[in-house]
Amino acid sequence: MHHAYIDKFAYQDSAIHRLDSRVKFLVVLVFTAVVISLPRMSLSILACYAVGPFAVLVWAGIPLRFVFKQILLVSPFVLVLALSCPLYDRTPVVVGFGPFFWQTTTGWLRCFAILGKFVVTMFALIVLVSTTRFNDLLAGLQWLGVPRLLIIQLGFLYRYIFVLIDRAHHILLARAGRKLKNLGFKNELRTAASMLGSLFVRSIDTAEHISIAMQARGFDGSWHTLSKLHIRRCDVFFVLVAALFISGLYLLVRPILT
Amino acid sequence: MHMANELLSIPVAGGTLAISAASLGFICRKVRQVIAADKLALMGILGAFVFAAQMVNFQLPAMPGTSGHIVGAVLLAIILGPHLGAIVISSVVIVQCLIFQDGGLLALGCNLINIALAPSYIGYFLYKSVTNGHFSSLKAYVGAMSACVIALETGAILVVIETAISGVLVVPLSTFLVTMIGIHFLVGFVEGLVTVAVLAYLQQLRPDVVADSLPGVIRLSRKAVLVTLGIFAFIIGAGLSLLASDLPDGLEWSYAERPDQPDFQPVVSNPDSRIAAVDDLQSKYSPLPDYSARGSKLGQVAEQQADAGAGWTSLAGVLGSAATMAVIWLTAWILRKRQPQ
């Protein structure tokens, strides 16, 4: 088990980590919705909105290098679509930034606004994910009305994802040790299909063993967790500060900047 | 092709979230009635299997250096049935969002529909309807291939529709559609090949697992692959050329936002009352529906002076935010330095 790097920061401890998962989830959801509905061409207001999640990330002790790496990793689709904006929207527009003025097109403004919103909302999502243990998040989601079957499914999935990724690594290593060159499409496909098939069979067998073990311990389909949810004073404080930040920027700063 | 928040408008994101939540709730209730407790572990582990399976890559032909991997939605739907398949793939999409940050939180509804719900049901019913009746290898091939290709194409087309209704992108609809359909045809075709090969492998090793979906023996043959490819190339080619001639090129979804051409007439308008209603809803409920960048030309002195104030405020906004972030970071750094380990 050496894949805990993906959400290892969720197991740190800080004031942010100790907040209730429901509170964090809802605040991030509202924040994302507000950022998405900001004007499509204004960049400076996005910079102001970035301050909030940035402060929380720093406070929670999440390394910024990890954050940016994560954002870069999931950006290709958005990047391609954003960069296609300047090709199709060539309405000229004059942009002023401090003492500088230059002419550009609204396509570029759109492109940078999409990328800026992407970065800011990713900040918020990373705050949620890397300061909340997945089990707590699931307990919160169940409280918020997500079906119990889906919660159990997600719990199992999370528990075994790293086990099976480990297995896939072993199979990939075995192939790399035996395959010294490109085998051609047909054989590549056949090898991959055999690997997938054996992975599938092993998964089914594992599932059978696990479910026998669980039934031996009295599992009847109900799911009990240790995660306790309770709203404390600091949760209320966090919600107040977040509401003040989001609405304050929206009502006071946005009209000036746009 | 996970959607991001930024490509959607609030009404589209909210609507798709509501639709996917309702259908997932419905499916869960339905499955809960028929499933035994011992199947719960199997479903969870097959979700993890999808993640592991996506790591198994293989070289693609004609494109050296690129490798593909399986998506897995149709494979699971064929083996498990559409309801269980839909739940497993939905949980995969949710974990991709919440742990790997792939796809935005608000776009989760779109992603669930495009990647999990639509492909599972469409793939399953296509496969079943093709392989219905007397079983033959060719039927299994055509069934799995058409299931994969059409299921993935549906997801791709849904992505285009959702972004078009949102109106964030200005890429002409037909260009975007043709690109997405082209790419996903290739993806779907390779997915179909792998799916058939995995089914054949499973039939040799564990016939009990695929007994429902493969009633006869499936043989891997070059001829069957070529015949299927021929059929698909024909169908998709004909469809694409029809589509391309049908849609006027350069259809601008943002036709209402062109300050440079006040007399610009939309080439195509959509008289559908539902779209008008969505537009209405968006303009009513999105806090600020239109952008406010001024379209002025260089050289107009009066306009430039009017813009000067805006330039300074935006500079102040960006610099102020940057300074705040720097102060926050420095404070945290100093505090952490002081703290004994």
Compact description:
In chain A, 69% of the residues lie in helices and 5% in strands. Chain A has 258 residues and is mainly alpha-helical.
Properties at a glance:
heterodimer, A: 258 residues, mainly alpha, 2 domains, two-stranded antiparallel sheet, 9 helices, 2 strands, flat, B: 341 residues, Arp2/3 complex 21 kDa subunit ARPC3, 10 helices, 1% strand, globular
Would you give an account of this structure?
The complex is a heterodimer of chains A (258) and B (341). By secondary structure, chain A is mostly helical. Chain A has 2 domains: 8-133 and 229-257, no CATH class; 146-216. Chain A has 9 helices and 2 strands. In chain A, strands 1-2 form a two-stranded antiparallel sheet. In chain A, a hairpin with a 2-residue loop joins strand 1 and strand 2. The termini of chain A are far apart. In chain A, 43% of the residues are buried. Chain B has 341 residues and is mostly helical. Chain B folds into 2 domains: 5-255, Arp2/3 complex 21 kDa subunit ARPC3; 294-341. A two-stranded antiparallel ribbon of chain B has the order 1-2. In chain B, helix 1 packs across helix 4 and helix 6 packs parallel to helix 8. Chain B is globular, with a radius of gyration of 25 Å. The interface between A and B is large, with 127 and 114 residues.
Total strands of chain A: the figure is: 2
State the strand order across the main sheet of chain B: 1-2
Q: Of all protein chain pairs, which has the greatest interface, and how many residues does each chain bring to it?
A: A-B, 127 and 114 residues
> How many domains of chain B, as an integer?
2
Main beta sheet of chain A: strand number and arrangement?
2 strands, antiparallel
> Helix amount of chain A, in percent?
55-70%
Secondary-structure map:
The complex is a heterodimer of chains A (258) and B (341).
Chain A: H1 21-36, H2 44-59, H3 64-73, H4 76-88, E1 92-97, E2 100-105, H5 106-131, H6 134-143, H7 148-178, H8 185-216, H9 233-257
Antiparallel strand pairs in A: 1-2
Chain B: H1 10-34, H2 39-53, E1 58-59, E2 67-68, H3 73-80, H4 82-98, H5 108-131, H6 137-166, H7 173-205, H8 222-246, H9 273-285, H10 301-338
Antiparallel strand pairs in B: 1-2
